[in-house]
Amino acid sequence: KSLLHLQCHFGMDTLSWARLGATVTGLDFSQPAVDQARELARTIGITDATFVQSNLYDTRSVLTGQYDVVYTGIGALCWLHDIRGWANIVAACLKPGGFLYLYEGHPMLWSLDYDVHDQSLVLKEPYFETARPSEFDSEFTYVDGPRLQAQRTYEWNHGLGEIATALIDAGLRLDFLHEHREVAWQALPWMVPADGTSATGGARHRSRTQWRLPDAQRELCPLMYSLKATRPA
User: How far is residue 34's CA from residue 37's CA, in Å, rounded to a whole number?
Assistant: First the structure.
């Protein structure tokens, strides 16, 4: 199948789909990220992956084809100011019968206060899309690396209803929408491994991908969601 990965960053997920047999195209606004994706593809011997630099809202000016699958991964939508514009791009990039698959942090998770010290779930940021982004400063990014030169971050949240309705209004059929109690990273310091083992489990801990809230909080808040939406044939 042909697969378009929007906001592909440096292509790790994109190339994982290629290893499973997809013909992949990745798009990202960052030229250094696209350069790294191309280098990674060369390093691991994938010759038919395409990576394109573009602002997401300009996708149709650089990619005119249509795809069997459009994929968007974790932590992508918060960088977008207009979820309806994104949904229209997704629909335009899909072949009739093709589908979007989205796996993302839940908008409830993005609304939480990350600086709470008593393990309370406190809402701090807007749940719904707003005209102006949330702004904050950070010296480091979420991965290991040097101190950031540009330390101001701008993010937009989008309510789950806004996302689903934007896709429906763009002409897609919503096939499923699942909310998950687990998250793919330790989003809050007091989260515990989803399988109940110790959070200090050495190599096993480092390879873990799923975390959850403690038992007393587990049913209070969804942490991620997955969504599939098809363009009718």
Answer: 5
Bridge partner residues of 112 (DSSP): 123
pLDDT at 52 over 80: yes
Query: Strands 50-53 and 67-72, how do they pair?
Result: unpaired
- For every residue of 170-183, DSSP letters joined together read TTPEEEEEEEESEE
Handedness of CA 85, 90, 96, 101 (dihedral sign): negative
DSSP H helices, 58-159, are 59-62, 83-93, 107-111
Mean pLDDT of 113-128: 91
Confidence (pLDDT) at 228: 98
The band of 4, judged by pLDDT with boundaries at 50, 70 and 90, is very high
pTM of the model: 0.91
What does the pLDDT look like over 14-38, one tens digit per residue? 999 999 999 999 999 999 999 999 9
Distance CA 107, CA 163 (A): 10
- Phi, psi at residue 224, to the nearest 5°? -140, 170
**C-alpha span between 115 and 151 (Å, rounded):** 18
Beta pairing class for 211-212 and 192-193: antiparallel
Q: Which of 69, 76, 59 is nearest to 100 (CA)?
A: 69
Cα 135 to chain centroid, rounded: 19
